[in-house]
Amino acid sequence: MKQEEEKLTGLPENAFRELKPGEVYNPLMSPDKKYPEVNLWSVLWGIAMAILFSAAAAYLGLKVGQVFEAAIPIAIIAVGVSGAAKRKNALGENVIIQSIVAGAIFTLPALYILQETYPEEITVTFTQVFISSLLGGVLGILFLIPFRKYFVSDMHGKYPFPEATATTQVLVSGEKGGSQAKPLLLAGIIGGLYDFIVATFGWWNENFTTRVCGFGEMVADKAKLVFKVNTGAAVLGLGYIVGLKYASIICAGSLAVWWIIIPGMSMIWGDSVLNQWNPSIVATVGSMAPEEIFNYYAKSIGIGGIAMAGIIGIIKSWGIIKSAVGLAAKEMGGKSNVEASMKRTQRDISMKIIAIGSIITLLLVFLFFYFDVMQGSLLHTVVAILLVAGIAFLMTLILASVVMVSVGLKGPEGMVAALVMGGVVCTALSMAGGFITDLKIGYWLGSTPAKQEAWKFLGTIVSAATVGGVMIILNKTYGFTSGQLAAPQANAMAAVIEPLMNGVGAPWLLYGIGAVLAIVLNAFKIPALAFALGMFIPLQLNIPLVVGGAVNWYVTSRSKDAALNAERGEKGTLLASGFIAGGALMGVVSAAMRFGGINLVNDAWVNNTWSEVLALGAYALLIIYFIKASMKTK
Question: In angstroms, rounded to a whole number, what is the distance separating the alpha carbons of residues 47 and 101?
């Protein structure tokens, strides 16, 4: 029977705000109707996008240590191809297409870095990389599903979900066409070209810093005070969607590190060499640049804060965890008959399947560690499984190293074991973080959660294989210690793991300071995770969040008419989504050109201070356009 095209009217007014008592959110696609979602079209395009964007994300992550949100450009492509093919009611199909995953690109390259130091003792294979990424991804999916309802429905309007917001706007605008699609497309072109010019041609610098003048250089060298801002369109758009309040908390953490802790450390320990946990440090604190103090010391305070914030979050959500476990137990006992009467948009994969799948996956993890990583050591395998099961702790990699040393597994073998464990855990965490974005998109639009969840496993297999292959090719072509592929996280992890496994300690004091700070922030009702993230992420990437948040505040507060302010805010969200999407797409194109050997950047000009001055001018023009276009609603 020929399916009639349903006319869409856009997201409901209460899509992004908290619901009032008794208020219900009704998604774009009605829960009482069935829509095309999983079919040959969506599956084949999903696989193609998984291969393309997993490879691109792996390259960018290893090149600069940052990845883009793949769901956004995938959504644009999905809308484009479905429109070109004149597919009707393609919104559900497009949600499935964009539900894609990237692999463990940050931890596992450290194996190759250590292999150069220990070529005889350490052997890295595609199987190790693929299986650790695959098992971690599967665990991330299985462990997240029981919490889907809490995060996407119960917490409606309480979390910003910036990537999900941008992707949803892309999908809705593509379906609706007309007035919403035009500003989104225009912003995508402007933001994409802006970031493409910077990344590919280097017409102006990516960052502006106070080192552009002699006074700023002197302040940075003597007082260790520096100001930096990334002038990219994508990060500006991200700040708008995050909002001023949340962005300010993140930035406050960053400024606390860069303007208080770093200068303070230089003043107090300027003549000291602080290398108790890292013997490779031979310079005094006072002779280091602010960036070196950040990398060697201050960043570790942020790590401790993030870890403690995660633990606090687990404690606070313990009731949710108990409810999820109770539901699983009830379904395993055959006592739950609620699923049959559930609406389509509330239906998850059966808890019985999740419980059985989790047990089977953990068993496969056990066999993988026993026969491959641990070379038949039962004690070491059991310890590894217990550590992997503690999946919510950010510091798993460091804790794994300490525990492994205590049970007798050290040296090169211990390094491999700790990093593979880290690969499994970090992939699971990354998967859960990305997948909750996909599920939130589905919630806003009215997709079937069970279908998103089931087909996510296919994306995990494809992405794990793609990332594993790309990682090996890049290592053979360039090498992760050559400087052509910086892999900053992997190099840092290798630097931390090696001394730990050789009997040298970790910066526990700095971790402890961060943990105490998180507890204090939580006591004062300040979001500790956001503050600690700001302490860990470089300053230049946090300042633009506040700039984007300030643009959001400005355009939504200029009128006494609340409806007009809301309309301007929605227009700004479309433009910000375009900036993010355009920047991400052009990032892929630029990365592909670099990978093909096409490098059009004039390094001499980029290193000239005038390129930073020009960057500030271009950034100012971009912000002016952003504000004026957002406030023009007619």
Answer: 10
